[in-house]
Amino acid sequence: MMIERQRAIVSGQSVPRLPRHVRIQFDPVRQAHAVLSPEKVFWPNEASLDILKLCDGRRTVDEITEDLARDYDASPQEMAGDVAAFLQEWADKLLVRL
Amino acid sequence: MKKSWKKPAMCQVAR
């Protein structure tokens, strides 16, 4: 039996959030945050960790990009493509819900 | 001091 799933596409108005089975945990051994899902462990770089922390189910992708631009040396316009591509990739892997 | 923007990436590992 095939289960058809419609692919969610990221837009500036998407409101991403982490599903219940995905969480961010600080690993004291490595002094770094890990993203844990039931079958996989990921080590995010600083930018991706900051994006995931803002995926709270309330902010839109545009708002996340604006928030990030306050902390980084790039404008929202410069970051928007990277942020959207990152969220699309992880939404496709079911680690982010849109 | 603003952080340097690098393309977001996560590498998969495998408590």
Structure, described:
The complex is a heterodimer of chains A (98) and B (15). Chain A is flat, with a radius of gyration of 14 Å. By secondary structure, chain A is α+β, with helices and mostly antiparallel strands. Chain A has 3 helices and 3 strands. Helices cover 38% and strands 14% of the residues of chain A. Chain A has a 3-stranded antiparallel β-sheet with strand order 1-2-3. The model of chain A has no long low-confidence stretch (mean pLDDT 91). Chain A has a single domain, classed as Arc Repressor Mutant, subunit A (Orthogonal Bundle). Chain B is mainly beta and 15 residues long. Chain B has no helices and 1 strand. Chain A binds chain B through residues 34-35, 40-48, 51, 71-74, 78-79, 82-83, 86, 90, and chain B through 2-14.
Give the CATH topology of chain A. Answer: Arc Repressor Mutant, subunit A
Helical/strand content category of chain A:
alpha+beta
Number of helices of chain B: 0
What is the ordering of alpha helices and beta strands of chain B?
E
Could you tell me the radius of gyration of chain B in angstroms?
Answer: 12 Å
N-end to C-end Cα span of chain A: 25 Å
Q: How many runs of DSSP E, i.e. beta strands of chain A? A: 3
Shape of chain B: elongated
What about the largest sheet of chain B?
none
Apparent shape of chain A: flat
Protein name (chain A): Pyrroloquinoline quinone biosynthesis protein PqqD
Organism (chain A): Manganibacter manganicus
Subunit structure (chain A): Monomer. Interacts with PqqE.
InterPro entries (chain A): PQQD (IPR008792), PqqD_bac (IPR022479), PqqD_sf (IPR041881)
